[in-house]
Specification:
about 170 residues, mainly beta, Chitinase A, domain 3, Thrombin, subunit H, 4-stranded antiparallel sheet, 2 helices, 8 strands, about 35% strand, elongated
Length: about 170
């Protein structure tokens, strides 16, 4: 079976940046709905017509993947607003930020603590791969027809590439 719209494809891959540094290795098969919300459009387009065993190489520019880095999504907040045991790498949903944080911080963004200082916490609402061109080396491990439930959901259930929509530049 060839990959077409409304089918489910099982993939493995290696993702590298343009300098060749490995960013992600998926060696266990994960299924994605083609024609849904599971993969970026350029990945779906590149996979069309291939079948099991195919190897597909692809480069995604930031605007085709996780977007450009937006410095308006980086906030310096008073450390006293956060729990004493806060650590770098913790995430907070924008609507759940502590009272007293910058009211202009968008509420529909996931923020990651990127730096801790004695008096401040740096929150970054950018996806960790924003601003980075990605090189994908994919292998098609399986192809099957999508179920009605998957088509209705728009997903094979992985949500791997689901991202928070960033607010437009002001």
């Amino acid at each position: 079976m060839e990959i077409t719209q409304q089918c489910v494809v099982g993939l493995t891959w290696t993702i590298k940046d343009t300098l060749g540094e490995e960013l992600d290795v998926l060696d266990e098969v994960v299924e994605f709905l083609i024609g849904g919300n599971d993969l970026f459009k350029k990945i779906e387009d590149a996979l069309q017509g291939y079948g099991v065993g195919a190897r597909v190489q692809l480069q995604l520019e930031p605007e085709e993947a996780f977007g450009d880095f937006n410095d308006r999504l980086v906030f310096l907040e008073p450390r006293k607003l956060f729990p004493a045991d806060i650590e770098e790498g913790l995430s907070f949903e924008g609507h759940a930020l502590p009272a007293g944080c910058n009211p202009e911080a968008p509420k529909d963004v996931l923020y990651t603590v990127t730096d801790l200082y004695p008096d401040h916490v740096v929150l970054d609402g950018n996806h960790p791969l924003s601003g980075i061109a990605l090189r994908l080396s994919m292998k098609v491990e399986s192809v099957r027809e999508a179920t009605e439930e998957e088509i209705g959901r728009g997903s094979a259930g992985t949500g791997f590439f689901k991202i928070q929509v960033q607010p437009p530049e002001a």
